[in-house]
Structure formats: structure tokens, C-alpha cells
Description:
Layout: H1 2-19, H2 50-95, H3 99-128
Amino acid sequence: MSRCLAILLSLALVAAPILARAEEPQQPPGRATELAEGQAAPYAGSLVDRERMGAILAKRIAAELERDAMRLDLQQAQHDRDVAAQKAAEAESARGPSWGVLIGVTATALVIGIAGGVAATLAIQDRVK
Length: 129
């Protein structure tokens, strides 16, 4: 069994580079041509020197980094909120039922008790008559 597994793995290691193909890099839309100073442009368009292109790319990268930082800040705020809610729930359950819950349960039991007492009293009065 282990010999068959070793043979299969060896074949997979040999076949993997053969089966893997490198994809051609995608070119962005539009055209780009290198021009020497004084050379006529082969098509109509905008000419941007390397310094300006570097500034454009730097601005784009800075915007992407700022977006990523804002996403991380949002995730951190959501995490902090979830942790605080979890701690509050744990503290609430450790304290036991709150006074509001106890008062509500007591009031409900009192109403039920009074209603039962009234019903019992009326039933007794009906039997007495």
C-alpha cells in the first residue's frame, strides 16, 4: 500500500510541472508606446512622462492603503463591540436575574394568585347559595 502511494506521489511530482501552464499577463486596456524626445506620436492620446506616471501610481497606492486601513478600523470597531456585548452578557448572567425580571415574575404570580383566589371565592359562594 505504501509503495503504491509512493509511486503515485512520484508521478504527481513529475506530472505537475508539465500540466501547469503559465498564463499570459493581462495587459491593461489602451495602448502604451515608448517615445524618444522629438519623436512623433503614433496615435492620438495623452503623453505622460515617468515622473507623472509615478505620481499617479503613488496616489493610487496611497488610496488603496487608506481604504485597507479604514476596513481594518471598521473590523476592529466591530470586534470591540462584539467583545463588549459578550462581556456584558456574561456579567449579566453571572449576576443572576435582574430586579426587573424578578418584579415582573412576582407581579405575574400575584395577579394569577389573586385571580385564583377570586375564582375560588366565587365558586364557594355559588355552592353556599
